[in-house]
């Protein structure tokens, strides 16, 4: 989908890769007498992608519209309508878009189709831009996604990706609107002006709210803005957290005994035992992040020279392990209410006093499920 959209926007793409991807999609959408709900959703999405790429499968589109229309979710009905919009079939468009309901409120899926209310709402907006470009639901959906961004602070990649595509399509259309201008205020202080050309205001400071004031003649819906904030929590402000997941970490020596964090010697092996569990049912695609203090570096377990820990007997199976200069990333699927234990190795390499960042866990496709452990300090001393 993203490759096809990039080509439509005039960006260079690998045509061979795109054609292979489209051929694979075409093989996944063939008509079937019976579909599971997620299978039907995937088939309609594939038909939409093919149609956007100029390879509409009208036979399968007609079959699903005639045999499975009652099983389609609102966003899938709109996507099938958008596929028909590329073929010039107004009767099919009318059938699919009549009595189009609201996107269902669903729990974020951490596997399967990765459904979520926000992602499906963005898909509905994306489809309506093709299927019914003058629909009054389009500005309402864009406004609702903007409210979602304010109300739901952690989005997953599915939600971000489809929302950016949908809003990008909308911005392309809005570019044809009359130019506008306005001013930015922080509290009561004016900090700058803008026009319909993209502009960035950096390092805004002040105690009051950020406010945009549009000049006369502005046509509603033409402007979009985004605010990015960042900061480092202080010791007083930081608290361990648990929301659907729980995580804890212990640092051990090479014999498996608790490590004296105030008396680590340069060259010592540090065994990091990380335990994580879900208290909100089974959760797939959980990322566990162990940020390393500056005095430690990762021991690569794939090297023949890496030390062994034969006393480890309770290590869980990892889906994927990613070793980086400053962190160790574990990717796992969690069963419900069962601690899963993982061991990774580091080496004390630089003497000094260092902050020990907290271990963190997050469901990649449902960031509301997350946890963070304790912070601390570690002292690495010269080996005499």
Describe the structure.
The chain has 384 residues and is an alpha+beta fold. The chain contains 9 helices and 16 strands. The chain has helices at 2-8, 15-28, 37-52, 58-67, 74-85, 90-97, 117-131, 137-151, 157-174, and strands spanning 181-186, 189-195, 210-214, 241-243, 245-252, 264-265, 269-278, 283-291, 296-298, 320-323, 327-334, 340-348, 352-356, 360-363, 366-372, 376-381. A hairpin with a 3-residue loop joins strand 10 (320-323) and strand 11 (327-334). The longest helix is centred in the middle third of the chain and has 18 residues, at 157-174. The termini are far apart.
Outline of this structure?
The protein is α+β, with helices and mostly antiparallel strands and 384 residues long. It is 30% helix and 25% strand. The model has no long low-confidence stretch (mean pLDDT 89).
SSE inventory with pairings:
Layout: H1 2-8, H2 15-28, H3 37-52, H4 58-67, H5 74-85, H6 90-97, H7 117-131, H8 137-151, H9 157-174, E1 181-186, E2 189-195, E3 210-214, E4 241-243, E5 245-252, E6 264-265, E7 269-278, E8 283-291, E9 296-298, E10 320-323, E11 327-334, E12 340-348, E13 352-356, E14 360-363, E15 366-372, E16 376-381
Parallel strand pairs: 6-16
Antiparallel strand pairs: 1-2, 1-3, 4-15, 5-7, 7-12, 8-11, 8-14, 9-12, 10-11, 13-16, 14-15
